[in-house]
Write a structure and sequence with these properties.
By secondary structure, the chain is an alpha+beta fold. The chain has two domains: 3-58, no CATH class; 68-185, Helicase, Ruva Protein, domain 3 (Orthogonal Bundle). The chain is built from eight helices and eight strands; from the N terminus they run H-E-E-H-H-H-E-H-H-E-H-E-E-H-E-E. The protein has helices at residues 3-15, 41-46, 52-58, 75-89, 99-107, 113-127, 138-145, 160-163, and strands spanning 17-18, 27-28, 96-97, 135-136, 148-151, 154-157, 169-173, 181-185. The strands form three sheets. The protein has a four-stranded antiparallel beta sheet, with no helix packed on it. Helix 4 (75-89) crosses helix 6 (113-127) and helix 5 runs parallel beside helix 7 (138-145). The radius of gyration is 24 Å and the shape is elongated.
């Protein structure tokens, strides 16, 4: 947030007053602000990129939520929740994760945090027409987690090695398996 805008925000927070863009009359507001950031604000304050007075005005009650990679014990609960809610929305109620799939999720670092976990579940539910067993298995999750590189009609999954006990995972175009892809584990 630019420093000039921070000064205006501070005025609203302290006085409850602002002048709308293009307006000449001051407006009064009574608001409560809930702010969230992933930035290291003390570092930004030291670098003079964030005003210290706004920080202390906003930081009356702070909650620090560690990233998902630091609280792996939450992954089964979150994955089950997403499977339930997204499954209901998509008409795929009752889908569960195998124990191996849960172990795979817990082994992954989730740089995209909870959003990445939710999107992974969404992709598997929406792309896999063969969820007749109502269980998402480990390999289907590896296919979503892995980095896919395209080479003609063959897709190779390079980062799947660590997730799949060192075995190379490759899949080819085929109408027989989920998402028109056949999986070969070597």
């Amino acid at each position: 947030m630019p420093i000039a805008l921070q000064a205006k925000l501070l005025r609203v927070l302290e006085d409850g007053a602002f002048t709308p863009v293009g307006g000449s009359q001051e407006k009064r507001v009574d608001v409560r602000v809930l702010a969230a950031t992933n930035a290291d604000l003390p570092t930004k304050i030291a670098a003079r990129q964030f005003r210290e007075d706004i920080y202390y005005r906003l930081a009356r009650f702070t909650v620090t939520v560690p990233p998902l990679r630091e609280r792996k014990e939450d992954i089964p609960l979150l994955a089950t929740h997403f499977l339930s809610t997204l499954g209901t929305e998509m008409g795929r109620e009752g889908v569960t994760l195998s124990e191996e799939a849960l172990a795979t999720l817990e082994a992954y670092d989730f740089p995209g945090n909870i959003r990445e976990l939710k999107n992974l579940i969404l992709v598997r539910l929406s792309n896999c027409a063969c969820v007749s067993s109502k269980v998402l298995d480990r390999l289907s999750l590896i296919l979503v987690l892995a980095t896919i590189s395209l080479s003609f009609d063959r897709f190779s999954i390079s980062s799947a090695n660590s997730l799949n006990s060192g075995r190379m995972v490759t899949f080819f175009n085929s109408p027989s398996i989920c998402s028109s892809n056949a999986v070969a584990v070597i």
